[in-house]
Model the fold of this input.
Amino acid sequence: MEKLKELGLDDEFGAIYDEEIVHKMEINSARSDGRKEGAKDEKKSIAKNLLKIGMPIKDIMKATGLSKKQITTLM
Done:
């Protein structure tokens, strides 16, 4: 327990610990961004399929949450 107290007061250890925390936060952020991008790609893929079967753009907008501009660029 005493060693833990000493480490808590050690500036070098604190800096390394803080750096590790920041690194883990950056990794989690990148993972989150990747999931968001994947979901967006999935919506675009679904919109393309709906366009192929002739669904009106307004209905595709409702189904996917994509804008009219985003959908028309898929055509």
The chain has one domain: 2-72.
